[in-house]
UniProtKB/TrEMBL annotation, chain A:
<keyword id="KW-1003">Cell membrane</keyword>
<dbReference type="InterPro" id="IPR035906">
    <property type="entry name" value="MetI-like_sf"/>
</dbReference>
<comment type="similarity">
    <text>Belongs to the binding-protein-dependent transport system permease family.</text>
</comment>
<dbReference type="GO" id="GO:0055085">
    <property type="term" value="P:transmembrane transport"/>
</dbReference>
<protein>
    <submittedName>
        <fullName>ABC-type nitrate/sulfonate/bicarbonate transport system, permease component</fullName>
    </submittedName>
</protein>
<feature type="transmembrane region" description="Helical">
    <location>
        <begin position="51"/>
        <end position="80"/>
    </location>
</feature>
<dbReference type="GO" id="GO:0005886">
    <property type="term" value="C:plasma membrane"/>
</dbReference>
<feature type="transmembrane region" description="Helical">
    <location>
        <begin position="118"/>
        <end position="135"/>
    </location>
</feature>
<keyword id="KW-1133">Transmembrane helix</keyword>
TrEMBL record, chain B:
<dbReference type="GO" id="GO:0016887">
    <property type="term" value="F:ATP hydrolysis activity"/>
</dbReference>
<dbReference type="InterPro" id="IPR003439">
    <property type="entry name" value="ABC_transporter-like_ATP-bd"/>
</dbReference>
<dbReference type="GO" id="GO:0005524">
    <property type="term" value="F:ATP binding"/>
</dbReference>
<feature type="domain" description="ABC transporter">
    <location>
        <begin position="3"/>
        <end position="240"/>
    </location>
</feature>
<dbReference type="Pfam" id="PF00005">
    <property type="entry name" value="ABC_tran"/>
</dbReference>
<dbReference type="InterPro" id="IPR050166">
    <property type="entry name" value="ABC_transporter_ATP-bind"/>
</dbReference>
<dbReference type="InterPro" id="IPR017871">
    <property type="entry name" value="ABC_transporter-like_CS"/>
</dbReference>
<keyword id="KW-0067">ATP-binding</keyword>
<protein>
    <submittedName>
        <fullName>ABC transporter</fullName>
    </submittedName>
</protein>
Length: 247, 276
Protein backbone atom coordinates (compact mmCIF):
# COMPACT_ATOMS: atom_id res chain seq x y z
CA UNK A 1 0.00 0.00 0.00
CA UNK A 2 2.71 2.41 1.10
CA UNK A 3 4.94 1.33 -1.74
CA UNK A 4 2.17 1.77 -4.29
CA UNK A 5 1.45 5.30 -3.03
CA UNK A 6 5.14 6.10 -3.39
CA UNK A 7 5.35 4.62 -6.87
CA UNK A 8 2.52 6.94 -7.93
CA UNK A 9 4.57 9.82 -6.56
CA UNK A 10 7.71 8.67 -8.38
CA UNK A 11 6.02 8.80 -11.77
CA UNK A 12 4.82 12.34 -11.07
CA UNK A 13 8.25 13.42 -9.91
CA UNK A 14 9.72 11.86 -13.05
CA UNK A 15 7.34 13.87 -15.20
CA UNK A 16 8.30 17.10 -13.38
CA UNK A 17 11.96 16.32 -13.91
CA UNK A 18 11.56 15.72 -17.65
CA UNK A 19 9.48 18.89 -17.92
CA UNK A 20 12.09 20.90 -16.05
CA UNK A 21 14.95 19.64 -18.23
CA UNK A 22 12.94 20.31 -21.40
CA UNK A 23 12.15 23.85 -20.18
CA UNK A 24 15.78 24.56 -19.41
CA UNK A 25 16.94 23.18 -22.77
CA UNK A 26 14.30 25.04 -24.80
CA UNK A 27 14.54 28.24 -22.77
CA UNK A 28 11.37 29.52 -24.42
CA UNK A 29 8.27 31.33 -23.14
CA UNK A 30 6.21 28.60 -24.78
CA UNK A 31 7.31 26.10 -22.12
CA UNK A 32 7.71 27.70 -18.69
CA UNK A 33 9.54 25.68 -16.06
CA UNK A 34 7.57 23.82 -13.37
CA UNK A 35 8.88 26.18 -10.75
CA UNK A 36 7.59 29.31 -12.52
CA UNK A 37 4.21 27.58 -12.98
CA UNK A 38 4.04 26.88 -9.25
CA UNK A 39 4.97 30.47 -8.50
CA UNK A 40 2.17 31.59 -10.79
CA UNK A 41 -0.22 29.15 -9.08
CA UNK A 42 0.75 30.62 -5.73
CA UNK A 43 0.05 34.17 -6.99
CA UNK A 44 -3.36 33.20 -8.34
CA UNK A 45 -4.10 31.45 -5.05
CA UNK A 46 -3.09 34.47 -3.03
CA UNK A 47 -5.27 36.80 -5.04
CA UNK A 48 -8.17 34.46 -4.26
CA UNK A 49 -9.27 34.29 -7.88
CA UNK A 50 -8.02 30.71 -8.44
CA UNK A 51 -10.02 29.35 -5.51
CA UNK A 52 -13.11 31.29 -6.61
CA UNK A 53 -13.10 29.91 -10.15
CA UNK A 54 -12.06 26.47 -8.97
CA UNK A 55 -14.99 26.33 -6.56
CA UNK A 56 -17.46 27.39 -9.26
CA UNK A 57 -16.17 24.77 -11.68
CA UNK A 58 -16.23 22.07 -9.00
CA UNK A 59 -19.85 22.85 -8.17
CA UNK A 60 -20.75 22.56 -11.85
CA UNK A 61 -18.86 19.27 -12.09
CA UNK A 62 -20.58 17.92 -8.98
CA UNK A 63 -24.10 18.88 -10.05
CA UNK A 64 -23.75 17.55 -13.60
CA UNK A 65 -22.04 14.40 -12.28
CA UNK A 66 -24.88 13.64 -9.88
CA UNK A 67 -27.57 14.32 -12.48
CA UNK A 68 -25.79 12.25 -15.15
CA UNK A 69 -25.23 9.35 -12.74
CA UNK A 70 -28.83 9.27 -11.47
CA UNK A 71 -30.43 9.43 -14.90
CA UNK A 72 -27.81 7.21 -16.55
CA UNK A 73 -28.04 4.54 -13.84
CA UNK A 74 -31.84 4.52 -14.02
CA UNK A 75 -31.79 4.13 -17.80
CA UNK A 76 -29.02 1.54 -17.64
CA UNK A 77 -30.88 -0.62 -15.12
CA UNK A 78 -34.09 -0.36 -17.11
CA UNK A 79 -32.37 -1.28 -20.36
CA UNK A 80 -30.36 -4.09 -18.80
CA UNK A 81 -33.36 -5.76 -17.23
CA UNK A 82 -36.19 -5.06 -19.70
CA UNK A 83 -35.66 -5.95 -23.32
CA UNK A 84 -38.46 -3.70 -24.52
CA UNK A 85 -36.76 -0.66 -22.97
CA UNK A 86 -33.43 -1.76 -24.34
CA UNK A 87 -34.81 -1.88 -27.86
CA UNK A 88 -36.72 1.37 -27.49
CA UNK A 89 -33.86 3.42 -26.10
CA UNK A 90 -30.93 1.81 -27.88
CA UNK A 91 -30.97 4.12 -30.93
CA UNK A 92 -31.18 7.18 -28.68
CA UNK A 93 -28.19 5.97 -26.71
CA UNK A 94 -26.15 5.34 -29.85
CA UNK A 95 -27.06 8.83 -31.06
CA UNK A 96 -26.15 10.31 -27.68
CA UNK A 97 -22.80 8.54 -27.68
CA UNK A 98 -21.87 9.84 -31.11
CA UNK A 99 -23.05 13.44 -31.21
CA UNK A 100 -19.96 15.58 -30.45
CA UNK A 101 -20.03 17.31 -27.07
CA UNK A 102 -19.44 20.63 -28.80
CA UNK A 103 -22.66 20.30 -30.81
CA UNK A 104 -24.83 19.66 -27.73
CA UNK A 105 -23.19 22.51 -25.87
CA UNK A 106 -23.74 25.01 -28.69
CA UNK A 107 -27.32 23.85 -29.24
CA UNK A 108 -28.12 24.07 -25.52
CA UNK A 109 -26.77 27.62 -25.37
CA UNK A 110 -28.73 28.65 -28.48
CA UNK A 111 -31.98 27.04 -27.33
CA UNK A 112 -31.89 27.78 -23.61
CA UNK A 113 -29.69 30.89 -23.52
CA UNK A 114 -26.30 31.41 -21.90
CA UNK A 115 -27.55 30.25 -18.52
CA UNK A 116 -26.29 28.04 -15.72
CA UNK A 117 -29.08 25.51 -16.35
CA UNK A 118 -28.17 25.26 -20.03
CA UNK A 119 -24.53 24.69 -19.12
CA UNK A 120 -25.25 21.91 -16.62
CA UNK A 121 -27.86 20.36 -18.89
CA UNK A 122 -25.36 20.26 -21.76
CA UNK A 123 -22.74 18.50 -19.62
CA UNK A 124 -25.19 15.97 -18.20
CA UNK A 125 -26.61 15.17 -21.66
CA UNK A 126 -23.12 14.31 -22.84
CA UNK A 127 -22.44 11.93 -20.00
CA UNK A 128 -25.80 10.16 -19.53
CA UNK A 129 -25.45 7.76 -22.50
CA UNK A 130 -22.04 6.54 -21.30
CA UNK A 131 -23.31 5.85 -17.79
CA UNK A 132 -26.38 4.10 -19.20
CA UNK A 133 -24.28 1.82 -21.42
CA UNK A 134 -21.94 0.84 -18.56
CA UNK A 135 -24.79 0.13 -16.16
CA UNK A 136 -26.73 -1.76 -18.82
CA UNK A 137 -23.83 -4.20 -19.07
CA UNK A 138 -23.91 -4.61 -15.30
CA UNK A 139 -27.65 -5.15 -15.19
CA UNK A 140 -27.35 -7.79 -17.91
CA UNK A 141 -24.72 -9.61 -15.87
CA UNK A 142 -26.87 -9.80 -12.72
CA UNK A 143 -26.97 -13.40 -11.43
CA UNK A 144 -30.61 -14.47 -11.39
CA UNK A 145 -29.71 -17.30 -8.99
CA UNK A 146 -28.82 -14.81 -6.26
CA UNK A 147 -32.10 -12.97 -6.71
CA UNK A 148 -33.90 -16.31 -6.28
CA UNK A 149 -32.31 -16.68 -2.86
CA UNK A 150 -33.93 -13.39 -1.87
CA UNK A 151 -37.22 -14.55 -3.29
CA UNK A 152 -37.17 -17.91 -1.53
CA UNK A 153 -36.34 -16.35 1.82
CA UNK A 154 -39.07 -13.73 1.36
CA UNK A 155 -36.80 -10.71 1.47
CA UNK A 156 -38.54 -7.41 0.83
CA UNK A 157 -38.10 -5.77 -2.56
CA UNK A 158 -35.99 -3.12 -0.86
CA UNK A 159 -33.68 -5.73 0.70
CA UNK A 160 -33.38 -7.65 -2.56
CA UNK A 161 -32.44 -4.42 -4.34
CA UNK A 162 -29.92 -3.13 -1.82
CA UNK A 163 -28.43 -6.40 -0.58
CA UNK A 164 -28.45 -8.61 -3.67
CA UNK A 165 -28.97 -6.51 -6.83
CA UNK A 166 -26.94 -3.39 -6.15
CA UNK A 167 -23.75 -5.09 -4.87
CA UNK A 168 -23.52 -6.89 -8.20
CA UNK A 169 -23.60 -3.50 -9.94
CA UNK A 170 -20.88 -1.85 -7.82
CA UNK A 171 -17.96 -2.55 -10.19
CA UNK A 172 -19.93 -1.06 -13.08
CA UNK A 173 -21.04 1.91 -10.97
CA UNK A 174 -17.45 2.61 -10.05
CA UNK A 175 -16.28 2.33 -13.62
CA UNK A 176 -18.99 4.75 -14.71
CA UNK A 177 -18.26 7.16 -11.84
CA UNK A 178 -14.54 7.23 -12.45
CA UNK A 179 -14.80 7.70 -16.22
CA UNK A 180 -17.62 10.12 -15.58
CA UNK A 181 -15.58 12.40 -13.39
CA UNK A 182 -12.72 12.47 -15.87
CA UNK A 183 -14.99 13.23 -18.80
CA UNK A 184 -17.32 15.67 -17.07
CA UNK A 185 -14.67 18.08 -15.93
CA UNK A 186 -13.28 18.24 -19.44
CA UNK A 187 -16.71 19.05 -20.84
CA UNK A 188 -17.42 21.57 -18.07
CA UNK A 189 -14.33 23.53 -19.11
CA UNK A 190 -15.54 23.70 -22.71
CA UNK A 191 -19.00 24.79 -21.54
CA UNK A 192 -17.42 27.53 -19.43
CA UNK A 193 -15.16 28.63 -22.23
CA UNK A 194 -18.07 29.00 -24.63
CA UNK A 195 -20.76 30.55 -22.53
CA UNK A 196 -19.98 31.38 -18.92
CA UNK A 197 -18.27 34.35 -17.31
CA UNK A 198 -16.67 32.43 -14.47
CA UNK A 199 -15.07 29.08 -13.79
CA UNK A 200 -11.75 27.60 -14.84
CA UNK A 201 -12.79 27.23 -18.48
CA UNK A 202 -13.62 30.93 -18.66
CA UNK A 203 -10.29 31.83 -17.10
CA UNK A 204 -8.37 29.56 -19.47
CA UNK A 205 -10.09 31.35 -22.35
CA UNK A 206 -8.86 34.68 -20.98
CA UNK A 207 -5.32 33.42 -20.55
CA UNK A 208 -5.41 32.07 -24.07
CA UNK A 209 -6.22 35.58 -25.38
CA UNK A 210 -3.00 36.79 -23.78
CA UNK A 211 -0.96 33.69 -24.52
CA UNK A 212 -0.39 33.40 -20.75
CA UNK A 213 0.89 29.82 -20.78
CA UNK A 214 2.12 29.99 -17.20
CA UNK A 215 -1.37 30.75 -15.86
CA UNK A 216 -2.96 28.16 -18.14
CA UNK A 217 -0.68 25.49 -16.69
CA UNK A 218 -1.12 26.80 -13.15
CA UNK A 219 -4.92 26.48 -13.40
CA UNK A 220 -4.67 23.08 -15.07
CA UNK A 221 -2.46 21.68 -12.35
CA UNK A 222 -4.57 23.15 -9.58
CA UNK A 223 -7.58 21.36 -11.00
CA UNK A 224 -5.70 18.12 -11.61
CA UNK A 225 -4.57 18.22 -7.98
CA UNK A 226 -8.21 18.42 -6.84
CA UNK A 227 -9.12 15.43 -9.00
CA UNK A 228 -6.17 13.51 -7.51
CA UNK A 229 -7.40 14.30 -4.02
CA UNK A 230 -10.95 13.16 -4.84
CA UNK A 231 -9.53 9.94 -6.29
CA UNK A 232 -7.23 9.28 -3.33
CA UNK A 233 -9.58 10.27 -0.52
CA UNK A 234 -12.96 9.16 -1.83
CA UNK A 235 -12.92 6.87 -4.85
CA UNK A 236 -10.07 4.53 -4.05
CA UNK A 237 -10.86 3.89 -0.36
CA UNK A 238 -14.53 3.33 -1.19
CA UNK A 239 -13.69 0.96 -4.00
CA UNK A 240 -11.27 -1.10 -1.96
CA UNK A 241 -13.81 -1.32 0.87
CA UNK A 242 -16.49 -2.60 -1.47
CA UNK A 243 -14.09 -5.00 -3.18
CA UNK A 244 -12.70 -6.49 0.01
CA UNK A 245 -14.47 -9.80 -0.61
CA UNK A 246 -12.58 -10.35 -3.85
CA UNK A 247 -9.19 -10.53 -2.14
CA UNK B 1 -53.78 -33.06 8.55
CA UNK B 2 -51.13 -32.89 5.91
CA UNK B 3 -48.69 -30.08 6.39
CA UNK B 4 -47.94 -29.85 2.69
CA UNK B 5 -50.08 -30.95 -0.25
CA UNK B 6 -48.68 -30.69 -3.76
CA UNK B 7 -51.06 -31.04 -6.71
CA UNK B 8 -49.49 -29.96 -9.97
CA UNK B 9 -51.81 -30.59 -12.90
CA UNK B 10 -49.45 -29.29 -15.52
CA UNK B 11 -46.21 -27.38 -15.78
CA UNK B 12 -44.72 -26.54 -19.15
CA UNK B 13 -41.46 -24.77 -19.92
CA UNK B 14 -41.55 -21.61 -22.05
CA UNK B 15 -40.45 -23.68 -25.07
CA UNK B 16 -43.61 -25.80 -24.72
CA UNK B 17 -41.98 -28.93 -23.25
CA UNK B 18 -44.24 -30.48 -20.65
CA UNK B 19 -42.16 -30.86 -17.48
CA UNK B 20 -44.75 -32.11 -14.99
CA UNK B 21 -48.07 -33.76 -15.71
CA UNK B 22 -50.39 -34.74 -12.86
CA UNK B 23 -47.92 -34.86 -10.00
CA UNK B 24 -49.53 -35.26 -6.58
CA UNK B 25 -48.19 -36.04 -3.15
CA UNK B 26 -48.40 -34.79 0.40
CA UNK B 27 -46.16 -34.65 3.45
CA UNK B 28 -46.84 -34.72 7.18
CA UNK B 29 -45.53 -32.20 9.66
CA UNK B 30 -41.93 -33.15 10.50
CA UNK B 31 -41.70 -35.83 7.84
CA UNK B 32 -38.48 -36.35 5.89
CA UNK B 33 -39.45 -37.04 2.29
CA UNK B 34 -36.87 -37.85 -0.35
CA UNK B 35 -37.76 -37.31 -4.00
CA UNK B 36 -35.86 -39.51 -6.41
CA UNK B 37 -35.97 -39.33 -10.17
CA UNK B 38 -33.81 -39.41 -13.25
CA UNK B 39 -31.95 -36.29 -14.36
CA UNK B 40 -34.19 -33.90 -16.21
CA UNK B 41 -37.32 -35.29 -14.59
CA UNK B 42 -38.28 -31.87 -13.25
CA UNK B 43 -37.18 -32.31 -9.63
CA UNK B 44 -35.66 -28.83 -9.41
CA UNK B 45 -38.70 -27.37 -11.18
CA UNK B 46 -40.90 -29.07 -8.58
CA UNK B 47 -38.97 -27.51 -5.70
CA UNK B 48 -39.03 -24.10 -7.39
CA UNK B 49 -42.80 -24.36 -7.68
CA UNK B 50 -43.19 -25.33 -4.03
CA UNK B 51 -40.85 -22.48 -3.04
CA UNK B 52 -42.84 -19.96 -5.06
CA UNK B 53 -39.97 -19.04 -7.40
CA UNK B 54 -41.88 -20.53 -10.32
CA UNK B 55 -45.54 -19.60 -10.40
CA UNK B 56 -46.38 -20.31 -14.04
CA UNK B 57 -48.12 -23.56 -13.22
CA UNK B 58 -51.54 -25.15 -13.24
CA UNK B 59 -52.32 -26.72 -9.91
CA UNK B 60 -52.12 -25.93 -6.26
CA UNK B 61 -49.66 -26.03 -3.40
CA UNK B 62 -51.26 -26.08 0.03
CA UNK B 63 -49.07 -25.31 2.99
CA UNK B 64 -50.65 -25.56 6.44
CA UNK B 65 -54.12 -25.34 4.90
CA UNK B 66 -53.28 -22.22 2.91
CA UNK B 67 -53.24 -22.26 -0.86
CA UNK B 68 -50.00 -20.83 -2.18
CA UNK B 69 -50.62 -20.45 -5.87
CA UNK B 70 -53.00 -18.14 -7.72
CA UNK B 71 -56.11 -19.92 -9.05
CA UNK B 72 -55.29 -19.30 -12.69
CA UNK B 73 -51.69 -19.24 -13.77
CA UNK B 74 -52.27 -16.03 -15.72
CA UNK B 75 -53.33 -13.93 -12.74
CA UNK B 76 -50.76 -12.13 -10.71
CA UNK B 77 -49.77 -13.96 -7.53
CA UNK B 78 -51.36 -12.44 -4.49
CA UNK B 79 -50.94 -14.45 -1.32
CA UNK B 80 -47.47 -15.60 -0.51
CA UNK B 81 -45.89 -17.68 2.17
CA UNK B 82 -45.29 -15.74 5.32
CA UNK B 83 -41.66 -14.79 5.73
CA UNK B 84 -39.49 -17.48 7.25
CA UNK B 85 -41.79 -20.32 6.22
CA UNK B 86 -39.21 -21.97 4.01
CA UNK B 87 -35.59 -22.93 4.15
CA UNK B 88 -33.99 -23.77 0.81
CA UNK B 89 -30.68 -25.45 0.09
CA UNK B 90 -29.77 -25.16 -3.56
CA UNK B 91 -27.54 -27.43 -5.63
CA UNK B 92 -24.81 -24.84 -5.21
CA UNK B 93 -24.20 -22.98 -1.97
CA UNK B 94 -25.52 -19.69 -3.43
CA UNK B 95 -23.87 -17.58 -0.77
CA UNK B 96 -23.53 -13.93 -1.75
CA UNK B 97 -19.78 -13.62 -2.39
CA UNK B 98 -19.73 -10.01 -1.16
CA UNK B 99 -21.10 -10.93 2.27
CA UNK B 100 -19.34 -12.85 5.03
CA UNK B 101 -20.73 -16.17 6.22
CA UNK B 102 -22.48 -14.46 9.10
CA UNK B 103 -23.87 -11.65 6.95
CA UNK B 104 -25.19 -14.20 4.47
CA UNK B 105 -27.18 -15.85 7.23
CA UNK B 106 -28.24 -12.59 8.83
CA UNK B 107 -29.55 -11.39 5.49
CA UNK B 108 -32.35 -13.98 5.55
CA UNK B 109 -33.09 -13.79 9.27
CA UNK B 110 -36.44 -12.64 10.61
CA UNK B 111 -36.11 -8.97 11.39
CA UNK B 112 -38.14 -9.32 14.61
CA UNK B 113 -35.63 -11.77 16.03
CA UNK B 114 -32.75 -9.37 15.62
CA UNK B 115 -29.60 -10.57 13.94
CA UNK B 116 -27.37 -11.56 16.84
CA UNK B 117 -29.26 -14.50 18.26
CA UNK B 118 -27.81 -17.29 20.39
CA UNK B 119 -29.31 -19.70 17.85
CA UNK B 120 -27.06 -18.28 15.12
CA UNK B 121 -23.95 -18.84 17.24
CA UNK B 122 -25.20 -22.27 18.23
CA UNK B 123 -25.80 -23.35 14.63
CA UNK B 124 -22.43 -22.02 13.48
CA UNK B 125 -20.84 -23.92 16.34
CA UNK B 126 -22.75 -27.10 15.49
CA UNK B 127 -21.64 -27.14 11.87
CA UNK B 128 -18.08 -26.17 12.79
CA UNK B 129 -18.10 -22.71 11.24
CA UNK B 130 -17.87 -20.59 14.40
CA UNK B 131 -14.31 -19.58 13.60
CA UNK B 132 -15.14 -18.77 10.00
CA UNK B 133 -18.18 -16.59 10.61
CA UNK B 134 -16.41 -13.48 9.38
CA UNK B 135 -14.84 -15.11 6.34
CA UNK B 136 -16.01 -14.48 2.82
CA UNK B 137 -17.28 -17.47 0.81
CA UNK B 138 -14.22 -17.23 -1.45
CA UNK B 139 -12.07 -18.14 1.54
CA UNK B 140 -14.02 -21.33 2.29
CA UNK B 141 -13.85 -24.86 0.88
CA UNK B 142 -16.81 -26.37 -0.98
CA UNK B 143 -17.88 -28.35 2.09
CA UNK B 144 -17.72 -25.29 4.33
CA UNK B 145 -19.85 -23.29 1.92
CA UNK B 146 -22.51 -26.03 2.06
CA UNK B 147 -22.37 -25.93 5.85
CA UNK B 148 -23.00 -22.19 5.74
CA UNK B 149 -25.91 -22.66 3.41
CA UNK B 150 -27.25 -25.40 5.72
CA UNK B 151 -27.20 -22.92 8.60
CA UNK B 152 -28.94 -20.36 6.40
CA UNK B 153 -31.64 -22.92 5.61
CA UNK B 154 -32.26 -23.71 9.30
CA UNK B 155 -31.80 -20.27 10.88
CA UNK B 156 -35.48 -19.26 10.88
CA UNK B 157 -36.58 -22.70 12.14
CA UNK B 158 -38.70 -23.09 8.99
CA UNK B 159 -41.56 -25.59 9.10
CA UNK B 160 -40.68 -26.55 5.51
CA UNK B 161 -37.18 -27.23 4.25
CA UNK B 162 -36.52 -27.74 0.54
CA UNK B 163 -33.23 -29.34 -0.47
CA UNK B 164 -32.16 -29.69 -4.07
CA UNK B 165 -29.37 -32.28 -4.28
CA UNK B 166 -27.55 -30.26 -1.64
CA UNK B 167 -24.53 -32.55 -1.25
CA UNK B 168 -23.81 -33.33 -4.87
CA UNK B 169 -20.27 -32.85 -6.17
CA UNK B 170 -18.79 -33.12 -2.68
CA UNK B 171 -16.36 -35.87 -1.81
CA UNK B 172 -18.04 -38.77 -0.02
CA UNK B 173 -16.64 -38.21 3.53
CA UNK B 174 -17.67 -34.53 3.41
CA UNK B 175 -21.10 -35.40 2.05
CA UNK B 176 -21.51 -38.00 4.80
CA UNK B 177 -20.58 -35.54 7.53
CA UNK B 178 -23.06 -33.05 6.14
CA UNK B 179 -25.80 -35.68 6.03
CA UNK B 180 -25.18 -36.41 9.71
CA UNK B 181 -25.30 -32.69 10.56
CA UNK B 182 -28.51 -32.35 8.59
CA UNK B 183 -30.13 -35.19 10.53
CA UNK B 184 -29.07 -33.70 13.87
CA UNK B 185 -30.51 -30.30 12.97
CA UNK B 186 -33.67 -31.88 11.55
CA UNK B 187 -34.25 -33.83 14.77
CA UNK B 188 -33.92 -30.64 16.82
CA UNK B 189 -36.43 -28.53 14.92
CA UNK B 190 -38.38 -31.16 12.94
CA UNK B 191 -39.19 -29.29 9.76
CA UNK B 192 -40.93 -31.13 6.95
CA UNK B 193 -38.16 -31.86 4.47
CA UNK B 194 -38.40 -32.37 0.72
CA UNK B 195 -34.99 -33.75 -0.21
CA UNK B 196 -34.38 -34.09 -3.93
CA UNK B 197 -31.67 -36.51 -4.96
CA UNK B 198 -30.87 -38.83 -7.82
CA UNK B 199 -29.03 -41.21 -5.50
CA UNK B 200 -31.41 -43.88 -4.22
CA UNK B 201 -29.01 -44.97 -1.50
CA UNK B 202 -28.83 -41.43 -0.11
CA UNK B 203 -32.64 -41.25 -0.12
CA UNK B 204 -32.92 -44.53 1.78
CA UNK B 205 -30.33 -43.48 4.34
CA UNK B 206 -32.03 -40.18 5.11
CA UNK B 207 -35.75 -40.29 4.52
CA UNK B 208 -38.91 -41.52 6.21
CA UNK B 209 -40.47 -41.92 2.80
CA UNK B 210 -39.15 -41.98 -0.73
CA UNK B 211 -41.17 -40.67 -3.68
CA UNK B 212 -40.11 -41.94 -7.07
CA UNK B 213 -40.68 -39.69 -10.07
CA UNK B 214 -40.95 -40.81 -13.67
CA UNK B 215 -38.97 -39.44 -16.57
CA UNK B 216 -40.34 -36.20 -18.11
CA UNK B 217 -43.24 -35.34 -18.01
CA UNK B 218 -42.86 -36.01 -14.36
CA UNK B 219 -45.37 -37.78 -12.12
CA UNK B 220 -45.17 -40.00 -9.04
CA UNK B 221 -44.62 -43.64 -10.00
CA UNK B 222 -44.17 -45.06 -6.52
CA UNK B 223 -43.94 -44.11 -2.85
CA UNK B 224 -42.00 -46.20 -0.39
CA UNK B 225 -41.90 -45.90 3.39
CA UNK B 226 -38.43 -46.62 4.83
CA UNK B 227 -38.87 -48.49 8.12
CA UNK B 228 -35.21 -48.90 9.01
CA UNK B 229 -34.64 -47.30 12.42
CA UNK B 230 -32.23 -44.37 12.73
CA UNK B 231 -29.31 -43.78 12.96
CA UNK B 232 -28.62 -45.15 9.53
CA UNK B 233 -25.54 -45.01 7.41
CA UNK B 234 -25.22 -45.18 3.65
CA UNK B 235 -23.22 -48.40 3.86
CA UNK B 236 -25.39 -50.17 6.48
CA UNK B 237 -26.41 -53.73 5.61
CA UNK B 238 -30.07 -52.89 6.08
CA UNK B 239 -29.77 -50.07 3.53
CA UNK B 240 -27.87 -52.36 1.14
CA UNK B 241 -30.52 -55.04 1.44
CA UNK B 242 -33.42 -52.66 0.97
CA UNK B 243 -31.67 -51.05 -1.94
CA UNK B 244 -31.13 -54.37 -3.69
CA UNK B 245 -34.65 -55.56 -2.88
CA UNK B 246 -36.27 -52.40 -4.21
CA UNK B 247 -34.44 -52.59 -7.48
CA UNK B 248 -35.25 -56.27 -7.75
CA UNK B 249 -38.96 -55.92 -6.95
CA UNK B 250 -39.58 -52.75 -8.89
CA UNK B 251 -37.57 -52.94 -12.07
CA UNK B 252 -39.67 -50.05 -13.43
CA UNK B 253 -37.56 -47.75 -11.23
CA UNK B 254 -34.70 -48.49 -13.55
CA UNK B 255 -36.61 -47.79 -16.72
CA UNK B 256 -35.28 -45.14 -19.02
CA UNK B 257 -31.63 -44.40 -19.39
CA UNK B 258 -30.48 -44.51 -15.80
CA UNK B 259 -26.78 -44.05 -15.04
CA UNK B 260 -24.95 -46.16 -12.50
CA UNK B 261 -22.77 -44.92 -9.68
CA UNK B 262 -19.14 -45.70 -10.40
CA UNK B 263 -18.44 -46.20 -6.71
CA UNK B 264 -21.01 -48.96 -6.40
CA UNK B 265 -19.47 -52.10 -7.83
CA UNK B 266 -22.48 -54.34 -7.12
CA UNK B 267 -24.69 -52.37 -9.44
CA UNK B 268 -22.04 -50.90 -11.69
CA UNK B 269 -23.21 -52.91 -14.65
CA UNK B 270 -26.75 -51.54 -14.47
CA UNK B 271 -27.06 -48.44 -16.64
CA UNK B 272 -29.35 -46.26 -14.59
CA UNK B 273 -29.85 -42.55 -14.16
CA UNK B 274 -30.93 -43.00 -10.59
CA UNK B 275 -27.60 -43.59 -8.90
CA UNK B 276 -27.76 -46.88 -7.06
Amino acid sequence: MLFSSFSRLYSLLGLLLVWHIAAVLLASDLLPSPLSVFVSMWEHLQSGELLYHLAITLVRVAISFVIAMIIGVAFGMLMGSRQIWDRTLDSLIILGLNVPALVTIILCYIWFGLTETAAIFAVAINKIPMVAVAIREGARAIEKEFLEVGQVYRLSRKDIFFKIYLPQLYPYLFGAARNGLALIWKIVLVVELLGRSDGIGFQLGNFFQFFDIRSILAYTFAFAAVIFIIEALIMRPMESRLNRWRQ
Amino acid sequence: MNMLAVEIDKKSYPNGTCAIDGLKFSAQQGEFVAIVGPSGSGKTTLLNIVAGIDQQVEGNIVLNGQSQLPVASTTKPTTKYQAADIGFMFQESRLMPWLTVKQNIQMVMDKEQGVETPYLSQLLEQVGLAEFADNYPKQLSGGMKRRASLVRAFINRPPLLLMDEPFQSLDEPTANTLRQILLVLWKETRPTVLFVTHTLREALALADRVIFLSDRPSRVIMEYRVDIPRPRKLEDDAINDLHARLLNEYPQLLSGSLAGSPSDSAQASTETEIKI
